[in-house]
Amino acid sequence: MKWLGRRQSDNVEDRRGLSGGKAVLGGGVIGIIILLLNVFGGETGQTVGNALEQLQGNPQQTEAAAPLSAADKEMGDFVRVILADNEDIWGKIFAENGMTYQNPKLVLFRGSVQTACGGASSASGPFYCPGDQKVYMDLDFFDELKTKFGAKGGDFAIAYVIAHEIGHHVQTLLGTSAKMREAQEGKSEAEANKLSVALELQADFYAGVWTHYNQKHLDTGDIEEALSAANAVGDDAIQSKMQGQIVPDSFTHGTSEQRMYWFKKGFTSGDIRQGTTFEDI
Ligand SMILES: [Zn+2]
User: Fold this and answer.
1) Ligand 1 being an ion, which residues bring their Cβ within 5 A of it?
2) How crowded is the C-beta side of 131, counted as CA atoms within 13 Å?
3) Rounded distance between C-alpha atoms, residue 198 and residue 44, angstroms
4) What membrane topology does the UniProt entry give (predicted)?
5) Would the pTM of this model clear 0.90, i.e. be above it?
6) CA-to-CA distance for 232 and 77, rounded, in angstroms?
7) Alpha carbons 213 and 220: distance in angstroms, whole number
8) CA atoms within 13 Å, Cβ hemisphere of 83
9) 235 C-alpha to ligand 1 centroid (Å)
10) I need a labelling partner for 210 at 20 to 30 A (CA). Which of 26, 44, 87, 164 fits?
């Protein structure tokens, strides 16, 4: 992606210089993490379990300064440009539809982090918390995406993930997320999961819409990087890697094929009205 020298957003909170956050946990943390976080990928029992172990294992962790490397700083700049791009494009799309876009914050962290949705760790993967309207990311996730989940990697894989999380912010502003959670109440787990899949696929669709309006900045291979990331974090791909079997009723994000399909649909159409993932349920 062509990003050097472009506008950087002021809405990035870089907490990477702090080693871990103070993890103060009360009861019901498992519920908070599972129910409230729009975790990007890999929200299997196993990863949530790991996250909790990490959080609970370090209750007294103190904050200590750790200097950022030149590579860390460059990654921070890249993230600021992608966030600025999202602000510009979604600001325009909202304005064209007679609405006002409110810029979310993006928090870069390492280890663990406190959010309005509860404590979380990097094992949860990148996520959006509707409670404080912030995207939380530990950039080490992208190494894992390559080594553990077999994605191609590349800068546009990161751009796609950021755009997916911003997609959840768009859903929050439009009221879609709240409606979805209401609809989940009283439903069986399998039915509630289907709604979650629709929400996730729509976020992939919105990431595609954002990419549509960003075409002049794309390099050859960028779309393949996004599709490879989407492919790697499909529920079927993750389950077969992590637990050796696929349980469709437990899907919360959609299959690899669905995730790629909706990203591509957003990318080709550039029309937010075509993100009709809830109609397919
Ligand atoms: Zn998501």
Assistant:
1) 38, 200, 203
2) 14
3) 18
4) Single-pass membrane protein
5) no
6) 25
7) 16
8) 25
9) 12
10) 44
